[in-house]
Amino acid sequence: MMPTSIPQATPSASLKTLTEALAKSQHYLLSLQTAEGYWWGRLESNVSITAEAVLLFKLWGIDQSRPMDKAARYLQRRQVASGGWELYAGDGGDLSVSIEAYMALRLLGVTADDPDLIRAKQFIWSKGGLTKARIFTKLHLALIGCYDWRGLPSLPPWVMLLPNGISPVTIYEMSSWARGSTVPLMVVLDRKPVWRTQPAITLDELYLEGSSQARYHLPSKGDWTDGFIWADQAFKLAEELSVVPFRNEGLAAAEAWIIERQEASGDWGGIIPAMLNSSLALKCLQYNMHDPMVLRGIGAIDRFSVETSDEYWIQPCVSPVWDTALVMRSLSLSGLQPNHPSMKRSADWLIRMQILDYGDWAVKNQKGSPGAWAFEFDNRFYPDVDDTAMVVMALLQAESSDEKLKQQAIDRAVKWISTMQCKPGGWAAFDLNNDQDWLNDIPYGDLRAMIDPNTADVTARVLEMVGQLNRAKNIPIAIASGLSPLQLDRALTYLVQEQEPEGCWFGRWGVNYIYGTSSVLASLDAMGKITQFRSMTLRAVQWLVNCQNKDGGWGETCESYKNRSAMGQGDSTPSQTAWALIGLLSGEGAIGLQNQPLRGQLESAIDRGITYLIETQNADGSWDEAWHTGTGFPQHFYLNYHLYRQHFPLSAIARYRTWKDWKIMEMGCT
Q1: What is the dihedral sign for C-alpha 150, 153, 159, 160?
Q2: For the stretch 539-552, what's the b/e string if a residue is b when 16 or more beta carbons lie within 10 angstroms of its beta carbon?
Q3: Where is 313: in which H helix or E strand?
């Protein structure tokens, strides 16, 4: 007799609905593929990126050749009811983001007595005023005389000369993104320029205590980190006395580093902060607007811009490699054949995008050879583990024009990943053993994003890749031999240790515990380790089930990065619902028939989650999502990937259909 916990066969109408949802989603995604073979969705953050670009264009005197009226409209429309501008959707307003938006609107000609700016000023006052802003906001204000350089930390250029392997700290102990932004800022912080803009502005009205009463100093914490403040005072005294050691040599090394790392396309590091800061450094070094490096750099920023009929804004980054690999996986899961023309075009494009140059990763990784992928179109110095593992899995599911070349690309990638495992057993995004946490406590590092340690979500991606490699019939299993059994055991042990008391995992690159938990469960499933880690999996499954919203979906706000009570809590979104479903479908195998209550809860949760996705799908096959579900820097910078809400739901529904088919087969055999 069939156990009562096994659901009855899905009615044909439901199967028809599933099939229609999959077909519409496939059609929508296929319509977005470019002729070259890649997918590329917009990547949106908060308005500070656009505000800082407005400032840069003003400083170079090129604002009149950009649609600044549309930029102003974009900024004005993003102001929320509180009077401020948000760090992420729904937070009600952030002090530093609001100050930068206010600054940009003033630069664009909006006067301080404008009603919206009066509301903004009141919001900024309610948060403590300008002197409470983050370091990087104050730096941008100092460039135009709206903040005093004395209130910013010094960053002596001789740091560039500290030898790797000998000095306890070098620029290569910083995360790749911090490094790409910090080296040019060494030049800016040394020169301390004050440039006048047209129109010239002051922001005295934003000082709660009054600009004449403001104290320009680094805040004391009353603990060991005050040692950094004493050191900063010594650096400032050396600057005042013009006795900074090796100053000219350090500046020359920074300039050479900036020049070397500019891509032929003009990009620096593939991220806007590094691109903006490098352009500022060149201006400080008296490069003129017609210099090829400057022109290429500004051109790269322009290519990150989005202009619509009435708005203009800047993306913080672009994600074609990441988007393409993820879309390919979703299309494959939903039944698109490996030899489909779209799959072949995208596979060929990804193979061409493999980076065969040495990058900054090679400074600490002396064993690895090139063969990874980056996130963007052009970023040869900074490929990353997460993208590389995802691309490998995408290539496994698609044919290419040259299968031998594809296998060689996969082989190179896996070998590179094998050399990037960190000491604790996991993998980081860009670097090896980039884990000196004390760097987050230096005055300059107030975003607490100075390092790139191994994380559960990136580690899970690598293990999922290994599982997919071992399952692929058309790829020799020997390709996965770059990762030894000992390495895999260390990685699994790391994930065991990283599980939170609640049963979930932290999500470094997606918001947040739903993302991390889904990633780990998918990796255990791909490796066939679900039953081996049954206890760990059951706790994770139960946590996901308990987080489900009444509407059947899942959501988690960015607030969960600073408030544990917000873990797994938030309005439902398509992307986070899909992550939860992928996690539950991956962990389902850990539930034995004897655990009827949890099995019933899980199957009900999965069915309700799928219903949520189907009911919220638009007629054209797409989904809508306003929330930020991607993470740049936890607590400080978040992302809205415009394609996340499209391909992740497709993957979840496709996995659900496979799971339902399997359940029906199981019933037939019972």
Answers
A1: negative
A2: bbbbbbbebbbebb
A3: strand 312-314
Length of the chain: 670
Residue type, 103: M
Largest pairwise CA distance in the chain: 89
Q: Which of 102-106, 419-423, 470-474 has the lowest mean pLDDT?
A: 470-474
Distance, in Å, from the CA atom of 135 to the CA atom of 152, rounded to the nearest integer, reads 7
Nearest to 120 by CA among 177, 188, 205: 205
pLDDT of amino acid 1: 27
Per DSSP, the residues of 545-585 read HHH--TTS-----GGGGT-GGGTT-SS--HHHHHHHHHHHH
Cα 224 from Cα 538, distance rounded (Å): 42
Q: Which two tokens stand for residue 451?
A: 């390092």
Taking each helix axis from N to C terminus, what angle separates 596-616 and 644-669, rounded to the nearest 10 degrees? 140
Bridge partner list, 314: 305
Distance separating alpha carbons of residues 302 and 282, to the nearest angstrom: 17
Burial 640-667 (b: 16+ CB within 10 A, else e): bbbbbbbbbbbbbbbbbbebbeebbeee
Closest CA to 182 of 113, 271, 78, 98: 271
Give the pLDDT of residue 478: 42
Q: How far apart are CA 582 and CA 579, in angstroms?
A: 5
- Which position has the token pair 């063969």? 371
Element at 591 (helix H, strand E): none
Contact (CB, 8 A) for 652 and 626:
no
Burial of 144 from C-beta contacts in 10 A (0-12 / 13-18 / 19+): buried
**Residue 85, pLDDT above cutoff 60:** yes
> Tokens at residue 626, please?
């306003």
For residue 272 the two structure tokens come to 């806007």
CB burial of 203-230 (b: ≥16 within 10 Å; e: otherwise) equals bebbbbeebeebeeebeeeeeeeeebbe
Residue 11 pairs with which residues in a beta bridge? none
- Strand partners of residue 373: 384
- Look at residue 669 in the predicted model and tell me its pLDDT: 52
Q: How many CB atoms lie within 10 A of CB 242?
A: 7
Tokens at residue 4, please? 């009562």
Vertex 452, ends 448 and 454: CA angle to 5°?
A: 125
Half-sphere exposure at residue 657, Cβ-oriented, CA atoms within 13 angstroms: 21
pLDDT tens across 273-320, in order? 999 999 999 999 999 999 999 999 999 999 999 999 999 999 999 999
User: For residue 181, which of 129, 111, 258, 112 has the smallest C-alpha distance?
Assistant: 258
Half-sphere exposure in the Cβ direction for 32 (13 Å, CA): 23
DSSP 3-state of 289: coil
H/E segment holding residue 27: helix 12-32
Residue type, 361: W
pLDDT computed for residue 11 by the predictor = 41
- Name which of 296, 96, 103, 261 is nearest 182 in CA terms: 261
Interaxial angle between packed helices 12-32 and 320-333, expressed in degrees from 0 to 180 and rounded to the nearest 10: 150
> What's the helix, strand, coil split of the chain in %, to 5?
55, 5, 40
Which residue in 232, 267, 384, 386 is the catalytic one? Answer: 386
DSSP category for residue 162: P
Residue 386 annotated to the active site: yes
The sign one gets for the Cα dihedral 602, 603, 605, 610 is: positive
Q: 633 by DSSP, 3-state: which? A: strand
Of residues 446, 443, 437, 435, the one with CA closest to residue 225: 443
Instruction: Provide the 3-class DSSP secondary structure of residue 66.
Output: coil
Peptide bond before residue 370 is cis, with ω within 30 degrees of 0: no
